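request received
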Amino acid sequence: MIDLLTIFVLAVFVGFEVVSKVSTILHTPLMSGANAIHGVILVGAILITGSAESTLQLVLGLLAVFLATVNVVGGFVVTDRMLEMFKR
Amino acid sequence: MIVQLMYLVAALCFILALKGLSSPKHARYGNFIGAFGMLVGVVTAYVHGVVHNGLWILVAVALGVAVGIPAARSVKMTAIPQMVALFNGVGGAAAALVALAEFFAVRDTTVLFRLATVLTVLIGSVSFSGSVVTFLKLQELMTTRPVLLPAGQQLAIAAGVSSVALCALTMAVPNGFLLWSLAAVGLALGVLFVLPVGGADVPIAISLLNAFTGLAVAASGYVLTNTLLIVAGTLVGASGTILTRLMAQAMGRSLTNILFGAFKATTATAHQEEQRTVKSGTVEDVAILLGYANNVVVVPGYGLAVAQAQHAVRELVSQLEKRGVAVSYGIHPVAGRMPGHMNVLLAEADVPYEQLKELDDVNPGITSVDVAVVVGANDVVNPGARDEPASPIYGMPIFDVDRAKSVVFMKRSMRPGFAGVDNELLYNPKTTLLFGDAKDSLTKLLAAVKQL
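response:
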């Protein structure tokens, strides 16, 4: 458990370090990109559904898989559309 | 071992994706890396962790793709904040569902596991319902004004207290019913928390909900002992926190004031000033002013986007540049409906990002600016925010356009801005008002400048 806490604390520092360097111009893509990244809950949703024992778990898990997938693909696609405009 | 390694690769990709955003040049490339990392993580989870229900999972993923991609492809750039709010919501909901499902799987639980579970369920459901209300506000499916329920504050406090109590109770007595109740209270809390937030403060609500969803995902990482979820969730939490803080600074208000002190607009003092004269000009006057200037700053606000005038303003600026006028855009952090929104809207209209300037780039040289053009903005150029401690927006950083040599203020009417505060700049002798729809005025201006 302490291992996980270590990872969490280090990730906090990395997160603040990296995000504070993000260009002000790109704050909207930052938020939608971060949005796509929290879609990583899809990993959790797949793991839980893949080992579901009861119908309740299966239903909850599949709903989570669906929502998380919307989150992931939508997030990355929207971010890409925006960043494409900033290339010029 | 190999699984952990794959998760590490995915986590690194996410960090690189955020790092790529430090400059517009590499940003798109970074986003690809992020998407690649996601693919690595998801495929790893599927190959390694799926014992059964594999086909069901693939169906759910396919459905998600079928919904997500068309939505993201078709959304208008003005509607990005709604979309982001919605994605925040579904992410939060997914995290809460994962924690609920895991709770029913595990028999033998530790205290820390239970703590992580209740936190994921609570934060996830707050984030979900809060995001849905934010979406409804931004999409104007409900009023954008602050909604103050009778006894709303007491209700919110009651919901807050009972959620803490339910968290403690569920940790002491792991019980499915208690956890469901916690989710329900969380949903109510999210609604009560966003309802009193007014239109202009919505960027803060979005940023904060973004941070919440990140935290919910990180907490779910503890529930599942999955390092990738912890790292990715934390990164998002950090990004949301930083943006929330920046937005609060850009409004010159504390976070608690924004969330709990729904604007008590002091419009009463403004009435006596209505008789004062303003100077309104014709399109031709303004065209001459702009055409023969050396140095122009355009300050756009959300009104520009509402009038769909981003392209019109870019065309006018190109025409001015052809005449040798140096033009830049002053972008206030709260211009638009979410952090950085105005930059995206202008980029869509092919404005080169080098021309997009922040407060600190524009204000020091403002006295040498010949003309400051304010289009669809109001509060962000209101000198009252700087000079009048009595003003409700006092303390908000502004563009000091009143210190430029002259000001052109494009306005639809004399109506005050979002905050409902009178703007002294309108009565400044240096200011020329150009009444009318922003797009219409800009198009006429373009024609007039071409005639010069």
